[in-house]
Amino acid sequence: MTMFRFIHSSDLHLGKRFGNFEGDLPGRLREARHAVIARLADHARAQGAGTILLAGDTFDTETPAAEVRRQALTEMAHHAAIRWIILPGNHDSLQASELWALLAREAPSNVVLASAASPIELAPNVALLPAPCTTRRPGRDLSAWMDAAATPEGTIRIGIAHGPIQSFSEDSGASEVIAPDRARRAGLDYLALGDWHGAIEVDPRTRYSGTPEQDRFKHDRPGEAVLIEIAGAGAVPQATTLPTASFVWRSLDLHLLADDDSAPALAELLPELRDRRQTMARIVATGRAGLAARTALATMVAEAAPDFGWLVLDDSGLATDCAVEDLDQIDRAGALREAADALLAESEDDSRSAAERAIAAAALTRLYGFAKEMA
Q1: CA 20 to 30 Å from 69, out of 33, 218, 284, 325?
Q2: pLDDT at 51 over 90
Q3: In degrees rounded to 5, what are phi and psi of residue 255?
Q4: Closest by Cα among 211, 48, 202, 186 to 117
Q5: Nearest CA-CA partner of 250 in 224, 279, 212
Q6: For the domain that residue 229 is a member of, what is the CATH number?
Q7: Is the domain of 316 the same as that of 233?
Q8: How sure is the predictor about 262, in pLDDT bands with cuts at 50, 70 and 90?
Q9: Looking at the structure, do residues 238 and 254 belong to the same domain, yes or no?
């Protein structure tokens, strides 16, 4: 029996710009993605795995900056005892011929480019069958060739591909191109997939590893990779989750009733103070709250924000309970009162979109807070 052990990861998206954030945060997030390389190598050494499969989108674009490309290869070379297999994904597809030509020239000896649909020998009696992305949207199942790929009897067959399967796709415009039963059709002992940023088991022989470093709130688990152990050809793979995240992205649900005190409810949600620097958090407030409670909640979130990597309040689902006394605290008459009345009416107008009502409610809350500050 041939035992083969390796780590499956994908979607490092090295060089991702994170242009929707400000200050030093984009740089910190980019550096965390680069640091994933060392974290994966540490896991490989600890687990006795000599190979790391990167199932596509190692780079965020087809034209990564030279420093992103070169520094990634340098870090991989530093972990010379480990072999890195890099598959072209949809973000760094083979259509970027200059990128792959540069990688071919610059790659150290322990980095293998899985840039052709042909078997790669990983070890005696262990074959890797790659399905590199030829373009961003190839429009066909690039893993189909694996069905007819010949390997000697008793060989462990491992497939590696990048793209959507069933309903799992990070690209809303993608079509379902990878056959969900490809492992069965091609006689694969394991199919390592990339593209979906959340780790998920499609079947006992097919997995998305998920990204090792989260980059959005879409998935509810911190970044991770997976250790795969295959006891021999035909054996069911054993999978072990490996933590890899530096940053944690969390959506925190805060449901309020009209008479609730938002302060203790918010305090209970927030992580420990020391953990906040590496936390990207979104407070999702729902239910109902008065103007004073809404203002207090917004103030508390703003005061806590500097402790976090990033903290934002999404109160678009929080309805506003507004009494005449609340509006009187803004103004009893005049232009400010007219503006407050108009904003309240807009926030309660069901003929408007949810986004428009949320904007009106937020504006009314800010107006209320401004009035309280000036009082």
Answers
A1: 218
A2: yes
A3: -105, 125
A4: 186
A5: 279
A6: 3.60.21.10
A7: no
A8: confident
A9: no
